[in-house]
Amino acid sequence: MAEASLPGAGLGEVELPGIPLYRRGKVRDTFDLGEQLLMVSTDRISAFDSVLPTLIPDRGRVLTAMSRYWFGKTSDLVPNHLRADDEAALPKGALQRLGGRAMFVAKAQRIDVECVVRGRLAGSGWQEYQATGKLASEPVPQGLAFGDELPELRFTPATKNDHGHDENISREQLAHRVGRELAQRLEEFSLRIFRLAEVHCRESGFILVDSKFEFGFIDGSLTLIDELLTPDSSRLWELGQMAGEAPHGFDKQLVRDYLLSIGWDRNPPAPPLPEELVRETRHRYLEASRRITGSDL
Questions:
Q1: Residues 6+ apart with CB under 8 A from 188
Q2: What is the pLDDT of residues 34-60, one digit of tens each?
Q3: Is 162 helix (H, G, I), strand (E, B) or coil?
Q4: Is 143 within 8 Å of 151 (Cβ atoms)?
């Protein structure tokens, strides 16, 4: 995997001698520590279901710092899988070498659903609205434009696929897949988290457009897992922009837009990213982390 030459080297695939690899995802390497896992957010970035050949330096540090922050801030609302660091469980010096990209987490029985909450029309929600006038197969007021605020938050679930594209489904389809009681709890927890985050993001100068959450069961308890409210899992727009102005985002939409602009057909291999785009993406990720968590990395 190629590394971005500016600014500084990024972290690609991770190897921990003596620690078995549990799963290598598109952007995250997870290791099996027995009763828990070590989840490492690399500087790899994906778009349109492909891992790009260019790294975004510090990206993994941002995802980890923001997830840690939000897990702490929402722990009174819903339990999560984050656990205390256990440096003794790793080879000597390994945690320091990972440079703030690692989280110790409890093992969970994952629910293969992405729980998406939308406050505004964007992304696949906007595409569905344009095509059908609906969101998650449910009616939405007509005449809304891209980026418009929805009359109320909308829960729009999707199937989660480790390989290939996630598929948007209706709330009724979710209830059929996981049972009505669990579907209602997933929606309730997701809306609860989004409402808290929406207020904090606004105080930090951002509009939280939408976000996705993942859940699993730990010791029989429904638990928030994976990452939380990062620039990868959420859309963050600058607050206070003029009406009709293109949104200034602090997420990976910048990368998606570039790939669309060069006419990539979305089939592997993905093209490399230019250095200027790497710089700007890194800057926006770092800025989102600084403003939301209140700390520089």
A1: none
A2: 999 999 999 999 999 999 999 999 999
A3: coil
A4: no
Domains of the chain: 21-106 (3.30.200.20), 109-250 (3.30.470.20)
Angle, helices 275-293/253-261, rounded to nearest 10 degrees: 160
With residue 285 as reference, give the H or E element that holds it: helix 275-293
In this structure, what DSSP letter does residue 249 have? B
Of 55, 54, 123, residue with least CA distance to 270: 54
- What are the tens digits of pLDDT across the range 228-259? 999 999 999 999 876 667 899 999 999 999 99
User: Burial level of 159, CB count in 10 A (0-12/13-18/19+)?
Assistant: middle
How far CA 137 is from CA of 53, 191, 194, 195, in Å, comes to 36, 18, 21, 23
CB 203 within 8 A of CB 179: no
Write out the two tokens for 93.
Answer: 């010096």
Q: What is the value of pTM for the model shown?
A: 0.93
With vertex at residue 228, the alpha carbon angle to CA 115 and CA 44, rounded to the nearest 5 degrees, is: 105
